[in-house]
Amino acid sequence: MPGHDLGLSIIALTVIIRFLFFPLSIKAQRSQRALNAINPHIQAIKEKHKHDQAAQGAAMMQLYKEHNINPIAGC
Q: Which keywords label this protein (predicted)?
């Protein structure tokens, strides 16, 4: 039956795509975990530099650098 072949093809394609994106998913999860770990520091920086976006950005980049975090790696 042709319908069964289509169903199996969809399932196979889904499994293949999930397998190919698995490393990216793991990397995103690790990055998110690292960002969650430094979240109190991030909130403190936002509060400290509430009215100065440039200083806030510089402090955030310094924090990321200290903790070896790439803020866009989890995207």
A: Cell membrane, Chaperone, Membrane, Protein transport, Transmembrane, Transmembrane helix, Transport
